[in-house]
Amino acid sequence: MQTTERRERGSTRERILDVALELFLEQGYEKTSLREIADRLGVTKAALYYHFASKEDILLELHLRLHALGRDILDRFDVLDDEEIVRSWPGLLDEFIDRVIANRELFLLHQRNQSAIEQLAQNERHQAENEDIQQRFRRFLANDGLPLEARVRMACSLGAIFSALMGVGGVFGDVPDEEIVRYVRAAVRDLFPAG
Amino acid sequence: MQTTERRERGSTRERILDVALELFLEQGYEKTSLREIADRLGVTKAALYYHFASKEDILLELHLRLHALGRDILDRFDVLDDEEIVRSWPGLLDEFIDRVIANRELFLLHQRNQSAIEQLAQNERHQAENEDIQQRFRRFLANDGLPLEARVRMACSLGAIFSALMGVGGVFGDVPDEEIVRYVRAAVRDLFPAG
DNA sequence: GTCTATATTTCGATAGAC
DNA sequence: GTCTATCGAAATATAGAC
Questions:
Q1: Same domain, A151 and A183
Q2: Contact B115 A31 (CB under 8 A)
Q3: Footprint of strand C on the protein (CB under 7 A)
């Protein structure tokens, strides 16, 4: 119970990120100007620059939150041998589905602004500490130790999850999310008959 | 064998579209300037405006080619009743896979520049004659006549195909495309056990 | 059809007062 | 921490000669 900065709930910095995420989803990153973000927030452009060094930094901050969601899942690969990875994959997918549902907007940001996000990786501190999660997964798919068929099906399963869950909330009509998630889990399970 | 304009092979207009597609994939639509397109083509910006009314028009032209690829497949839905759609879905997917492979770059353009392309739909002649293919598919997924599970699996199957085939050529290591396609077909088939 | 300008606009970013 | 004011750059698009 510190008196100051107990938690950054509702701090300006957080509100900037909220509004930015909102607008980046509506209009895309490039088409969203800092003026729009500031206007919707009721401040001026210059105020944004007190909290972030650049527009790219706002996107980077949002992207890093997505990173954090996937990092510990990917980290487990490093302690598993190839065969164990294949065996534990379906279980990992179940966790993954939960996170996609709980953080749909962050995943949507990544899906709908791929070009902008890829160029984050080239520039900045994004390199030093952060190996890009997508690159890491690509390297994983190129691993000769795993049977090609298994790798293809892994890629398929991720795409299937994204495709079915990203549009959740309207696309399938007026259906509770849980029902859709149940069907997605079943479908993905059929992609790994042995598991 | 007409003497003039026999076919627009290698016409400047076509070369502009080729270079634009190339750069839109490398850098994204927004980060690509008309100057870059003109430079790589060996002409000036002004020359581009002789062939296209705006930068958006270049993207629109590329997008319409993707449209044409999917339209006749979607058109067949209109003459099928709901049950027939479910039954013929796996066969349609097989055709679809062929088209994705044959036109990978156009699909990549759509995948990596979603925000830019969605805003095409709001503005222009894109509305009059063209109902957006994505909207059409969304309406399809909302159709109550089909069992929800079937619709979820349909969405999954498309995502699986995209995810596995878009990265083809490098992502899975040095493997011929045909082999990967074969595994994708098998995987997608497992999503529709009854079919 | 392509060129050399140039117009026009918008955006990201900074300086400095409060 | 937020403001006013402005800079400088870059982009789209146009005008008009060749």
A1: yes
A2: yes
A3: A 32-35, 45-46, 49, 53-56; B 11-12, 38, 42-47, 50-51
| Two structure tokens written together for B121 | 């739909």
Based on the domain organization, do A45 and A58 belong to the same domain?
Answer: no
Domain co-membership, A47 together with A119: no
Residue A85: give its domain's CATH number. 1.10.357
Query: How many domains in chain A?
Result: 2
Backbone angles phi, psi at B170, to 5 degrees: 125, -45
Q: What is the pLDDT along chain A (195 residues), one digit of tens a residue?
A: 443 444 566 899 999 999 999 999 999 999 999 999 999 999 999 999 999 999 999 999 999 999 999 888 888 888 999 999 999 999 999 999 999 999 999 999 999 999 999 999 887 667 766 677 788 888 889 999 999 999 999 999 999 999 999 988 889 999 999 999 999 999 999 999 875
* Tally of CB atoms within 10 A around A105: 13
Cα–Cα dist B119/B123, whole Å: 7
Q: What is the CATH number of the domain that holds A37?
A: 1.10.10.60
Under a CB-based contact definition with an 8 Å cutoff, are residues A155 and A141 in contact? yes
On whether both B180 and B134 belong to a single domain, the answer is yes
Q: How many residues are there in chain B?
A: 195
* B190 with A191: Cβ contact below 8 A: yes
Contacts with A142 from chain B: Cβ below 8 Å = 170-173
CB < 8 Å to B111, chain A = 114
Q: In sequence order, what are the residues at sequence separation of 6 or more whose Cβ sits closer than 8 angstroms to the Cβ of residue B170?
A: A142
Of A9, A25, A52, the residue that ends a domain is: A52
Q: Which residue of A has its CA nearest to B27?
A: A115
Q: How far apart are CA B113 and CA A59, in angstroms?
A: 16
Read off the DSSP letter of residue A46.
H
Q: In terms of residue numbers, what domain contains A77?
A: 54-191
Q: What is the pTM of this model?
A: 0.94
A174 and A80 within one domain: yes
